[in-house]
Amino acid sequence: MTLPVLDIEFITANKFLALTMRDKIANRDIYDIHFILKNHFGVDRQHIENISLKSFEEYIRYMIEFLEKL
Predict the structure, then answer these.
(1) Cβ contact 8:40 at 8 Å
(2) What are 57-60's contacts with CB under 8 Å, separation 24+?
(3) 3-state secondary structure string across 7-58
């Protein structure tokens, strides 16, 4: 039996997006992003660009600014 799963790059991209798109902060997103970065998981950059309508680099800067305001 095979079980379809999402690839890790897609999952990590959605975790990055969730941080700034939720109605309120979810501490698990901050922890998960820390874990993702610490373990050098890949990120689906194109997915982030498609959803955020920003370049990947612009979104990362936006995410950092978002975190600094917490």
Answers:
(1) no
(2) 59/16
(3) CHHHHHHHHHHHHHHCCCCCHHHHHHHHHHHHCCCCCCHHHHHHHHCCCHHH
Q: What six digits make up the tokens of 36?
A: 């993702």
70's CB contacts (< 8 A; 6+ apart) are 25
**∠ Cα 50 25 4 (to 5°):** 50
Can you tell me the distance from the alpha carbon of 6 to that of 4, in angstroms, rounded to the nearest whole number? 7
User: Using one digit for the tens of pLDDT, what is the confidence trace for 7-63?
Assistant: 999 999 999 999 999 999 999 999 999 999 999 999 999 999 999 999 999 999 999
pLDDT in the model for residue 7: 95
Is residue 61 classed as helix, strand or coil in its secondary structure?
helix
